[in-house]
């Protein structure tokens, strides 16, 4: 076996573990899934799992990072499709709420993420995945005079916190009207930031 084929095999094994871990964590939650079940579903040994991840928590962290990066990409792509800075901000925020209604995103990113990793680690991953983009958008809007001059960090964290809380509330809701109502409330909140 060549060095390149071994590297491909290792990556294939890692991807299988993350894929099956994600499927199982999303379906039943972190606490209800055992390592034996994950390795059986991925078709690998426990030794292979421990070659890639120190623990079930580390595998979950990799799954969470993947989910957060997917949501961040979706938000960025949606925002970037709009020509003006204000529309980019509002479309990105709305895209976050919509993406957060996916059952696997809700369970992994919003419910189990903070519980499994702890608030500090979860928040650091959230900041790396999406808060940075929100801060950049707000900075650009302030520089262009579309939002009154103010410190960006507190505004970013207030908006991020509000959207995360709304996403958690939506995760527990069974009313299909709650998403459009929440998106309308978010639009009103964002409109209140506009200068003039």
UniProtKB/TrEMBL annotation:
Residues 11-71 form the HTH tetR-type domain. InterPro entries: Homeodomain-like_sf (IPR009057), HTH_TetR (IPR001647), Rv0078-like_C (IPR049484). GO terms for molecular function: DNA binding. The keyword DNA-binding applies. Keywords: DNA-binding, Transcription, Transcription regulation. It holds the Pfam family TetR_C_41. It comes from the Bacteria. Residues 34-53 bind DNA. This is TetR family transcriptional regulator. It comes from Streptomyces agglomeratus.
């Amino acid at each position: 076996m060549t060095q390149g084929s071994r590297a491909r095999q290792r990556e294939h094994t890692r991807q299988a573990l993350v894929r099956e871990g994600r499927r199982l964590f999303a379906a039943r939650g972190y606490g209800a899934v055992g390592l034996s079940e994950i390795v059986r579903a991925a078709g690998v040994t426990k030794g292979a799992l421990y070659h890639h991840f120190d623990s079930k928590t580390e595998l979950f962290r990799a799954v969470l990072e993947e989910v957060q990066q997917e949501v961040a990409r979706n938000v960025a792509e949606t925002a970037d499709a709009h020509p003006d800075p204000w529309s980019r901000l509002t479309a990105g925020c709305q895209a976050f709420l919509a993406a957060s209604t996916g059952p696997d995103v809700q369970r992994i990113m919003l419910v189990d993420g903070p519980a499994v990793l702890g608030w500090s680690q979860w928040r650091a991953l959230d900041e790396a995945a999406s808060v940075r983009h929100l801060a950049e958008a707000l900075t650009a809007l302030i520089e262009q005079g579309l939002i009154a001059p103010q410190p960006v960090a507190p505004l970013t964290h207030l908006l991020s916190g509000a959207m995360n809380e709304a996403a958690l509330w939506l995760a527990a809701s069974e009313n299909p009207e709650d998403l459009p109502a929440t998106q309308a409330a978010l639009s009103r909140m964002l409109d209140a930031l506009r200068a003039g």
